[in-house]
Every structure is written in C-alpha cells, then in structure tokens.
Fold:
Amino acid sequence: MSGADLITVDDLRVHFPVGHAGETVKAVDGVSFGVHAGETFGVIGESGSGKSTLGRALVLLQKPTGGRMLLDGMDPQALSMRELRVRRRDFQVVFQDPNASLNPRMSIGTSIREPMDILGDLPRAQRDERVMQVLDRVGLRAEFAERYPHELSGGQKQRVNIARVLTLRPKMIVCDEVVAALDVSIQADILNLFADLQREFGLTYVFITHDLGVVSHISDRIAVMYLGRFVELGDAQELSDNPRHPYTRALMSAEPTPLPKAMRTRERVILSGEIPSPVSPPSGCRFRTRCPIAQADCAQKVPEWREVRDGHWVACHYV
Ligand SMILES: Nc1ncnc2c1ncn2[C@@H]1O[C@H](COP(=O)(O)OP(=O)(O)OP(=O)(O)O)[C@@H](O)[C@H]1O
Ligand code: SF4
Ligand SMILES: [Mg+2]
Structure:
C-alpha cells in the first residue's frame, strides 16, 4: 500500500449469520488492498463473489465483522454515529438499478437536493444553486429539475443518480454495476461521463462489475474476486497482458462481450461447475473445485497472497 492511498483495507471480513446453527455466509473473507487517490480500482468476479458487500463496506453501509479499514485516514470504528454521518459524505455509491435511489413521487430537482437536505449544512438557496450546477454537469438541461423519474430514460435516471452524489462533493464513489441495466448503446456515454467527472473533480472510483469489457476499459488497476477473497490484483494493462491466476485466465477466455483484443486469451478455459457455497467454502484454495490445474495440496494449504511482480498480486501455489 502506498502513502497516497485514499483507502486501505486490511483483512476485511463481512460474515452474515444464516440459519440457526451459527453458520455464516462469508461474503467477504479476508481481503487486503489499498486504493490510490484519483484512480479507478476495478473489482471483477462472478455473481455472489462478494463484490457488492465489499463495496457497501467501503461506503459504510455495511459494518465489517472483522479486519480494519482506513478511509482518508479515518478509522470508522473509532467514530461516533454522529461523526460517521458527517464523514460518510466523502464516500458515496451509485447502484445498478437507476430507480433504486429515486422516489417516483419526488421531482428530479428535489431528489438531487435530498442528500444535501439531509445533511442540512448549506442554506437552501445554495442547495438549489448546486442542484442546477450538477444537472448541467451530468449533461441534463435545467428543465429536468421539474420532471419526475417516469419521464426519464434509464440513462437519464443514472445521470440523476450521479448528480445526487456529486452534490456532496465526495472523494470516492463506489460504482456498483452502474451500466449493467442500461442499453449497450448508452453504456459508453455513461462511462465517459464518469471519466470526465473523475478528471474534473479528482474523484476516486471503486468500479464493481462482472463485465470484463467494462472494467478493462475504465480501470487503472483490477482486482479479481472469488468467493469472498481476492485471487489477483494488478495494473489493468499488466493483468490483461499477463493474467496469472487460473481463475483470471478462465474469466478472460470465457468473456462473452467484446473484450479489447489485447485482453482476449488464445486458449479457451471452460470453468466447470457452479461457484461453491460461501457458507462452507472449500478448504485450502477455494478455487480448487473448479481449477483446471489443481493439485492434491491445494485442498490443504491456503495460498498466500503474494506480490509476484511489482504491484501484481496473486493467490495461487502454482503461479
Ligand atoms: N444481507 C445479507 N444476508 C445474507 N447473505 C448475504 C447478504 N448480502 C449478501 N449476502 C450473500 O453474500 C454473498 C455475496 O453477495 P454479493 O451481493 O456481495 O455478491 P456480488 O459479487 O455483488 O454478486 P452479483 O454479481 O450477483 O451482484 C452471496 O452469497 C449473497 O447471497
Ligand atoms: S492454488 Fe491450486 S487450486 Fe488454487 S488456483 Fe492455484 S493451482 Fe488452482
Ligand atoms: Mg453485486
């Protein structure tokens, strides 16, 4: 982790209790990484690998059950509820479903103003002024302030959601599958908007997706998540030129959406079987039940998370 990290995460865990026998879903089960200020940190992995749970923990919507986080030097566990409420504004999230944060009975202008209304630290006139500024910034005309969500397209609603979080002038935004629900034809517009806003405001993104095409486009670095843990992390270019973990290789070879040519692997690796249950993950390496190169000792030893090259981390005994 570098000194310029905005976020540092050490052995983070989020376990959910299920059933009666004290069982837990190990949604996030020991991840350590740093997010550099101003970068786009991509997180990729299959459905159920724990990406959203990790993202929710980073914006303080989900309390970790273990490990430590430092967000811009702040330890959330050391803060009172009141302090948390104020500091949390720096860490925002935009979700996949454009409707999720929009009240159908609230005008767009009021929806955008709402996060500022809740914080209540700006006079009303200034809040209204900021609403108009961010509307313009996300590419919507002023008249949209008077409209209602049902009058907007999915892409326009996602612009409104981005405007909502921008009003708080956050440092970091978790983007959780932000284009997954949109037509392919407008996905690029929204991704470009994110890129423009990052340049303009020096934003840091944690960009969560199961779409390798999207993540490779926008990310500076990429983390590959499997069953609650990171299996590989590295510079986006390095990861695409030289994927090391068998799971990353499989993801890259199976990718159905058009990947940049450099990212497509020649060999095609088919992953057999489903992702195992996060209630009782496989012993040793948790990818072993689907790994094409698994050996006997993969069931005994948990692979160490090690740096195989400058900034390129992998968890596999045989890399
Ligand atoms: N509140 C909860 N209570 C119990 N289990 C949960 C809860 N939230 C998530 N889980 C479980 O934790 C695991 C990880 O879920 P998560 O939503 O983080 O995965 P994901 O990688 O975002 O998946 P997707 O790509 O489908 O969005 C899943 O097995 C999920 O069922
Ligand atoms: S540790 Fe073993 S099972 Fe896990 S990825 Fe490496 S070779 Fe496959
Ligand atoms: Mg998710």
About this structure: The two ends are 22 Å apart (CA to CA).
